[in-house]
Amino acid sequence: MICMEMAEFDFGKIAGRYDLCNHLFSFGMDRLWRRAAVRLLDLRADERALDLCCGTGEVVFALARYSAAGEITGLDVSEAMIRRAQGKQPSGGGGRIRWIAGDAVRTGLGDQSFDAITCAFGLRNIPDRLAALREMSRLLRPGGRAAIMEFSLPSNRVLRGLYWLYLRFVMPAAGALLFGSRNPLIYLAESVRAWNDEFDFPKVCEQAGLSYARGYPLTCGIVRIHLLKHKPMDKEHKIMME
Ligand SMILES: C[S@@+](CC[C@H](N)C(=O)[O-])C[C@H]1O[C@@H](n2cnc3c(N)ncnc32)[C@H](O)[C@@H]1O
Question: How far is ligand 1, taken at its centre, from the CA of residue 50, in Å?
Answer without folding.
Answer: 13
